[in-house]
Amino acid sequence: MxxxxxxxxxxxxxxxxxxxxxxxxxxxxxxxxxxxHSFGPRLISRRSLMWMIGGLLSTSAVGAGYARFVxxxxxxxxxxxxxxxxxxxxxxxxxxxxxxxxxIGAYFQPExxxxxxxxxxxxxxxxxxxxGDFVTVRERDRSRRSELRTQALMSLVEPLRxxxxxxxxxxxxHDHWGGVDPVVRMLNEAGVHLLRNEAMPIDDGLWLAGVxxxxxGRPDLGAALRDAPxxxxxxxxxxxxxxxxxxxxxxxxxxxxxSGHTHGGQVRLPRPTPGPDxxxxxxxxxxxxxxxxxxxLRRVGxxxxxxxxxxGSWPIPxxxxxxxxxxxxxxxxx
Length: 334
Ligand SMILES: [Fe+2]
Prior knowledge:
The chain is of the alpha/beta class. It has helices at 12-16, 20-32, 46-58, 61-70, 110-121, 142-154, 157-161, 173-177, 181-190, 221-225, 244-249, and strands at residues 36-39, 42-45, 76-84, 95-99, 127-130, 167-169, 192-194, 198-203, 206-210, 233-237, 256-259, 268-270, 281-283, 296-300, 303-307, 325-333. The model is unreliable at 4-19 and 35-42 (pLDDT under 50). 29% of the residues lie in helices and 23% in strands. It is built from 11 helices and 16 strands. The strands form 4 sheets. Strands 3-16-4-5-6-7 form a 6-stranded mixed β-sheet. A 6-stranded mixed β-sheet has the order 8-9-10-11-15-14. It has a two-stranded antiparallel ribbon with strand order 1-2.
């Protein structure tokens, strides 16, 4: 079965259709109508609803100022220990960092990206994973948008080159929607290894695989895992966290999936008792392909999925109770 069939979406017919032009038109439509869903009696886009939430925050000047300028700039470093059954003893203690959803060209600036990379340099990690959505520009005119997008992307090259450890990446939906080729070029120039449905060894008996994003790309888990030897511990990067259900359904030999995409919802309201995810907060809105695993760590059977809250913001510049995140994972034997 086509992998996209597992996860339904309004843009999927474009992926099945022939002809780059039709695909491009549909991806353009997805860009314009991001996450149109039904809320109540009429259709309203996720972007509109997020702006309404921003408007509500703005009713308090202090709240608006905090959510617009303070929290988005306060990048938090989250340390997570991953207990993995079958992890080679030699890999115990290995440290890997994750950054996601930079969305350069929207509200996150190149100097913010440079500062984030410098912080990763202080974390004594062996590897940095970048889990997609590198760029998003706010420009309605299509031809102008393409130019601005390429400019924004190239502004990431120097910040990424500051990294003192190897970097690996996967593409996100925004990377596909505007055309993935400039993203590939930027990552090449920055020295980032992009995994497009492929895997690479990162230690003895430890492999890292990456799939294209399910929303706009063409993920192929079979191809991604083809080179990973049986018996190895294999980690997977997938921009969209809900791809994890596909991993589970196919009983794929993946120990941990690393994702982003949701930004944790960006605006999280407190709740008096923990929700089903054990958290004392909840997001009003999360995007398609991020509803099942919207934030943090979830263990399903032997497998783990981790959803990073991202660095940038989109479609609104607000964050509340959901700061930007750099994650540091330490691998341990279960
Ligand atoms: Fe995304």
